[in-house]
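Quick check before the chapter quiz. The format below is the same one you will see on the exam, so make sure you can read both the input and the output lines.
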Amino acid sequence: MSQTPSPRHSKRHAEILRIVREEGTCSISALADRFGVSHESIRRDVKPLTEIGELLKVHGAVTLPHRVGEARFEKRMRENAYAKRAIAKLAASQINDGDTVLLDTGTTTSVLARELLRRRGLTVVTNSSDIARTLATVNDNIVYMAGGELRGDNGAAFGASAIEFIKRFRVRHVMISIGALDAEAGAMDYNLQEAEFARIALTCGQRASIVTDHSKFGRSGLVSVCGLDGFHQLITDKAPDRELQDALDEAGVETLLAPAEELVRIA
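Here is the expected output.
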C-alpha cells in the first residue's frame, strides 16, 4: 500500500516545481540551500517528481522535460533568472519615457527589454531580433535593428554591417551585457563578434552601462570588450569583491546594486 505524502513534503514538492518552472534548471545543491535541508532530502523530494515525469534529472540538477534540447539562448535566459530580473528592473528605472536607448543582444538585456514595456515613446537601437520584437509596434516606440549576418543561436545581427549601422546613432543610454568582468582585464566576452559589437556600442551613448549578474565577476573571457574606463555604470545584483570594486572606483565607474527585496524568493 503506497504511503500518502505528508503535507510538508507535498508543499515542498510544489515549491520545487515552482522554482524549476521559473528558473528552468536548478541544482540539487541550490535547492538544498534554499530549503535548509540536506542534499539527500532534496533527492528524495525530487525522486517522485522525476518518476511521474514532472522533472528530469540532469548532471546533479533538475530541469523541466521540455527544456532539454532547447536553444542555448533560451537556457541562458533562465540562468540566475531572479538576479537578471532585479538587474533589469533597476536598469529600467534609469530610462524615462521618450529616451533613446541602445541595447545589445544578451539574456539580461532581453529581460530589460521586457521591463521597458512600462515605458512609452522610446527610440531603441539594437542588433537583437528578440529585443526588436519585444519593443517594436508598442507604446509608440521606434525601433531600429542593425542588419548583417543573423546568428541562429540568439537571433542577433553581427558583422561589419551591424557595426557601421550603430555608428550612425548617438543615444542617451547604452546598456550592454558581457561574459566576464575582471579587475585587470576589464569587460570581456567569449565571442569575437559579440565583443566587437559591444565595444562600438559603448561609444554610442552619453551614458554607457554594463548590466550583468555577479556570476561574471572575476572571470577571464576570451575577447576584450573594454577596460574599466570604457563605461560609466555597472548595474548588478551583488557587490563585487574588494579588488574589483576598488578598480571600478578608481576608473570612476558607478556601481548600482539591485534592491535586495527584488531577489527575495519565497521558500
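If your answer matched, good. Residues 1-8, 67-71 have pLDDT under 50 and may be disordered.
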